[in-house]
């Protein structure tokens, strides 16, 4: 099916979960959804629409946090990005790692860098940060402060 | 000048170590070993193991994980061993000076003898830097 | 007297000639790759520099065996080259050294590298040492078969001087079909004994970071390097005595001797530069397959009288 049929199918099925659809170009669509519907969306896109999960990306957008899940439908050259906005007081979402093996590591990285909790993740450990990094300090947040007293941050000139 | 240092300067075997670089400096170091620049005429060979090495070429800004490994490798090199820092990231972390994962510059972790600036430095610059290292060691021992 | 000969000829003369041969090898390699090579004193400077570094014994190794292995390897090369020198220049002393002793002593350097790797306590060193062991098991058989040919052709004698004297009267063995084939087999096995490409899978630098010698530093490594350089002299001279008519130091014979030696070293270098490295199973299959068959053919031809 081509791009328009796919988007209409999504709009029909998930009427009250979609808040906004932004078609940036013929090959790039951003769909804003609610946080509770992500697993149903992922199931629908993977099994019925023929898309594959590519990667997820997390950002700290000053007053809320965003996670973008990128799905690719290769036959019609379409990249669908699902945008989930999380309130900073409740950074929790269902994990996709039981559906897609590829979501395992990126969710571990988002957890240690931004502090988002993924419910149902089978193996939540540190991925990239070193073992002596303190708990509860998330480096990619906007309000990250230097916690290391031994760090040298000037060039010495 | 003693026989030991004289022989060391005429046959320095290099060991190349990257502590988290973007690999550009590693490519330039590899260029030095090709027949065009031919460092074997100075007696330099690429050593496979750190225990065979006399000169440690370090590239990359040293992040928290690799600083542990770098200290281990420096301990395993048989002294006298000279250290050369290649590229901006190894000199002072370059543009990663405020990064959360690179707390200290390289010369606070291991003692460095020669710094070769550049991003990445040309092979001619690397050879000029090694020549300066040899002259500096000769001048120190006098 | 024997001790003086061992020290002067076995060690100093062999070390000098071995370092020169190693320099020839590196310079020809550099020229073939269109670059300038190292200066003449480079192999000697390498050994002196290594003698000045500190020795570090790894934690999982047994100190006595770790430090004894290079000494054993170097000692066996010194003794083997004493045997070769004494028979080459026909000194008038009664040294119990013949072909069997020389072959036996020339096996020990590879075994000492292998044992040095096993005793290092490093998994990469054990991997390299096990590859070296497979190689030793594979190339010793055709080497010994190829050395049976001069024994047969010179009237079933195993004395090296007698073999050289027989060739001085009846023409060198490499001129006959069986001798030529046996010489080819001997050169291929010599390449494997020296640990050079295409058979240097034990010390494959880009793969296992130095192989069995990964934990050696300082004087231990210097002894191993000196042992390899001395083997680069002893093995070609040994093959020269057995197949190419020996060493002749009278008059114009010196030129032919030096020519034969340089030819063998240059052949080793050319083979080293034009071939890729074989995997260990390919190398074992190569030695137990075509090379052994060639050696058996040479022995059969020698028995028939060709």
Summarize this structure as a short list of keywords or feature phrases.
heterotrimer; A: 157 residues; alpha/beta; Beta Polymerase, domain 2; five-stranded mixed β-sheet; two-stranded parallel sheet; B: 142 residues; Rossmann fold; five-stranded parallel β-sheet; 5 helices; 5 strands; 38% helix
Structure write-up:
The complex is a heterotrimer of chains A (157), B (142) and C (306). Chain A is α/β, with parallel strands linked by helices and 157 residues long. Chain A has a domain at 3-88: Beta Polymerase, domain 2. Chain A is built from 3 helices and 7 strands. A 5-stranded mixed beta sheet of chain A has the order 1-2-5-4-3. Chain A is elongated. By secondary structure, chain B is α/β, with parallel strands linked by helices. In chain B, helix 2 (24-32) packs across helix 5 (123-141). The model of chain B has no long low-confidence stretch (mean pLDDT 90). Chain B contains 5 helices and 5 strands. Chain B has helices at residues 3-10, 24-32, 64-76, 88-92, 123-141; strands spanning 13-18, 45-46, 55-59, 82-86, 114-116. Helix content of chain B is 38%, strand content 15%. A 5-stranded parallel beta sheet of chain B has the order 2-1-3-4-5. Chain B has one domain (13-141): 3-Layer(aba) Sandwich (Rossmann fold). With 306 residues, chain C is an all-alpha fold. Chain C has one domain. Chain C has 11 helices and no strands. Chain C has helices spanning 2-32, 42-51, 63-88, 99-118, 123-153, 160-170, 177-193, 205-208, 219-243, 253-273, 280-304. The radius of gyration of chain C is 19 Å and the shape is globular. Chain C starts with a helix and ends with a helix. The model of chain C has no long low-confidence stretch (mean pLDDT 88). The chains are: A alpha/beta (157), B alpha/beta (142), C mainly alpha (306). Chains in contact: A-B, B-C.
